[in-house]
Amino acid sequence: MSLSSFFIGPVEVKPLFILAPMSGVTSRSFRRLIHRENGNALGLTVTEFISVEALTRNNKRSLEMLDFRDEPRPISVQIFGYDLDRLQRAAELVEENGADILDLNCGCPVPKVVKRGGGCELMRQPEHLAKVLTTLKKTVKIPLTIKIRLGWDEKHKNALEIAKLAQGCGVDMLCLHGRTKVQLYSGEADRDIVNTLVKNLTIPIVANGDIVNLGSAQDYLSRGAQGLMIGRGALVNPWVFVDLQRQMSGQSPLAHSKQDVCRVVCDYSKFLLEEMPEKGALGRMKQLVGQATKGLRDSTKLRQLLCRSQSLEEMIDHLHRWSAAKESEENYVKS
Ligand SMILES: Cc1cc2nc3c(=O)[nH]c(=O)nc-3n(C[C@H](O)[C@H](O)[C@H](O)COP(=O)(O)O)c2cc1C
To answer: pTM (2 decimals)?
Structure first.
């Protein structure tokens, strides 16, 4: 299967792989790491979601999230919220700061977000959503995209209705995570809905949910998805994009050694320290190590040690010892 590109308005996503927005994960440091490790295999990155309430009240952390000056392009900025005026002002800020794409979160299931009308709650309020999308479309010149779920729950799967509404309001691309709000991350993402959306819409449909290997990627593409968005898979395998790019062009994925994992995680700690205090960096390191070392020899013990680590220095010391251990000559291929 050939690896093509697609367009979101005038923005080309080449190749068709997108790093998913993940709050508390895909900040500047993680995007930098994934870009560096995957080279030109990554077609688009999306920021963590940014609260329009916080952003339009000049919250320092939210404003910092709009700092992506030195990053490879294109980059999409995701916002979430309910209030029309604040969404509009936030959209203006996003465009002023030079984002290539504006994305509206319509899929977040977190109670704190949906109780205030944002995230997946917008899928339950189609009239309000139509107003929001029409307003945002008039507000910015950059392409507007949305990210939705399958629906609220088993009885309310309205992804198709919302997708048609979004297309009618001028939305330039829609990304679908095939689980309901109630499902959170349990069960398997529904893939048939991708066929339905592709059949009924003309805008590009990006598939998301459980893409971790060649099989899952190819399956979504065979259903007509034009782009593939990967979230957790990039934590488990920081080379997932380059691995998929290679496999789709008939090459085998690269073998990644324990030392490779160690190097990536240590570099991540340096990037994180440029972005946040050590305490925050420690949490993010544990997140990446917890996933990226899965399945590797002696990694259970390593993860236990790292979880108890009180400083980055201690953590890095454990990592180096682990990677230098006898089995380190063995390469592995993330599957
Ligand atoms: C820790 C975490 C944070 C997330 N934060 C966001 C977010 O800010 N915006 C969003 O649209 N989705 C968010 N998601 C959902 C992912 O973008 C994605 O839809 C979901 O993880 C399924 O894709 P995957 O199987 O490739 O991970 C988050 C997921 C995780 C695990």
So the answer is: 0.96
